[in-house]
Automatic annotation (TrEMBL):
GO molecular function: undecaprenyl-diphosphatase activity
Source species: Cytobacillus purgationiresistens
Assigned keywords, A-Z: Hydrolase, Membrane, Transmembrane, Transmembrane helix
Entry's transmembrane regions: 25-47, 54-73, 101-119, 124-142, 148-166
UniProt protein name: Undecaprenyl-diphosphatase
C-alpha cells in the first residue's frame, strides 16, 4: 500500500517538474481558494434564504464531524509529509512537519463543497473545486494521495450524513429561527415599498 501511495504521489508531484508553468496555478488553488470559499460562504449566508442557511449549517457541522473522524484516523495511522520522507520532492509551499494523515485542507473543502453540491445538484463546479484542491495538495508536495483520499471520503460521508440529519432536527430549526429574529432586529431586511404617485 505504501508503494502505491508513493507511486501515485510521484506521478502527480513530478508533473510540477514537467510543467512548471502550472505551478503558480496549483499554488493558488492549494493555498488561496480557502479565502474564496470563506467569502462565498458569507455571501450565501447573508442572502437570508432558508435553503442557503441550511446548506451552510450542514457544511459547517459536516466539517466538525469530519475533523473529529480525521483526528481519530490520525491516531490510528501516522505519516509525515512527503517532503519529509522522500527526496527530490517538488515542494512549492511552506508546511510544518507533522502528521499529514488525513489532509485537513481536503476535509475542509470536501465538507463544504459536497454539502453545497447536495443542495444544488446541478452545479458540479463545487465537486470540481474540491477535487482540484485535493490534487493541488499533492502537486505542491505537502500530502500523499492517500492523505487526500481519506480526507475526502470522511468529509463526503459527513456531508451526506448531515444533509439528511441536520435540517430535520427541531433544535436546529428553533435556533435558526431565534437567530433570524435577532438578525431582523439588528439588520432589518429591505422590503419593497409601493410608491403612490400624485396625479
Amino acid at each position: 500500500m505504501n508503494e502505491v501511495n508513493i507511486s501515485l504521489f510521484r506521478a502527480i508531484n513530478d508533473l510540477g517538474f514537467e510543467y512548471p508553468s502550472l505551478n503558480s496555478l496549483f499554488i493558488f488553488i492549494a493555498e488561496y481558494t480557502v479565502y474564496a470559499l470563506a467569502l462565498l460562504t458569507l455571501i450565501y449566508w447573508f442572502t437570508r434564504k432558508e435553503k442557503n442557511r441550511y446548506m451552510i449549517l450542514t457544511a459547517g457541522f459536516a466539517f466538525i464531524l469530519a475533523e473529529i473522524l480525521g483526528k481519530l484516523a490520525g491516531k490510528l495511522h501516522f505519516n509525515y509529509q512527503p517532503f519529509v520522507e522522500l527526496s527530490n520532492v517538488n515542494l512549492l509551499i511552506d508546511k510544518a512537519a507533522n502528521n499529514s494523515f488525513p489532509s485537513d485542507h481536503t476535509i475542509l473543502f470536501f465538507s463544504f463543497c459536497v454539502a453545497f453540491w447536495l443542495f444544488n445538484k446541478k452545479n458540479f463546479a463545487w465537486l470540481i473545486l474540491a477535487i482540484l484542491v485535493g490534487i493541488s495538495r499533492v502537486w505542491v508536495g505537502v500530502h500523499y494521495p492517500f492523505d487526500v483520499l481519506v480526507g475526502a471520503l470522511l468529509a463526503a460521508l459527513s456531508a451526506v450524513f448531515m444533509y439528511y440529519l441536520l435540517p430535520r432536527l427541531p433544535i436546529v430549526q428553533n435556533l435558526l429561527g431565534v437567530y433570524e429574529r435577532i438578525e431582523e432586529k439588528i439588520l432589518p431586511a429591505k422590503k419593497e415599498r409601493n410608491k403612490e404617485f400624485d396625479q
